[in-house]
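Researcher: We're teaching a course module on how sequence relates to structure. For the next exercise, students receive a sequence and then see the predicted structure as tokens, so they can try to spot secondary structure elements on their own. Here is the exercise chain.
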Amino acid sequence: MTVLDHIILLLTGLTAIYLIWRFYTRYSKEQARHDMYYAMGFVVLLVSGLLLIFLGWDILASPYILTVATLIPLGISMGLMHQFMPEYAKAYSWFALVGLLAIVVTSIGGMALKSVAVPVFHGVAGLIIVGLPFMRCIKGEAPKGFGLIGVGGILISLGGMALAFLNADKQLLFFSADLVMLILAPLLLLMTLAFTWGFMKDITASE
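Model: And here is the predicted structure for the students to work with:
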């Protein structure tokens, strides 16, 4: 890992801390459950970034890191469902729980089904993170700029799927191991900035 990677990951962590603080502040006022789910996702992102800074890219091969990183799209997608589609939030919560358990068991157990469980869960969570913000913006039910959460969703889906395929000893499209390691840190920063811009539009609109 280069010095530039360390700097980029540090900036990603600082951005995540700011967003966690804003979610906690809004939760303190409104007691809305979705803010806790959002905060959970970015706390995991912060911890993951710190682990990468101190331990390097090699930790990505650990099944435990893959399992923990799954909590990032889980938290964000759960938050979006509870905030914008509460009538389906309970059903999605069960799906997310089953998906998380499947990833834990297949990843730590080194089972072949990991190559199915990870893409399926990340695919559904990614569709929610991408689709809901864009849909709300198109309908005029969200502030302008909220759709950038969808952009962040596209970036996190690409990164997550690429890493999942690499951990399964396969390659997603042109995402070779060297390419993934080269773009991962900038991808994480761009993703976090897109999420921060979009979520801040929502937070400031509710103040």
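Model: If you want an answer key for the exercise: Residues 3 and 26 are 35 Å apart (CA to CA). The two ends are 41 Å apart (CA to CA).
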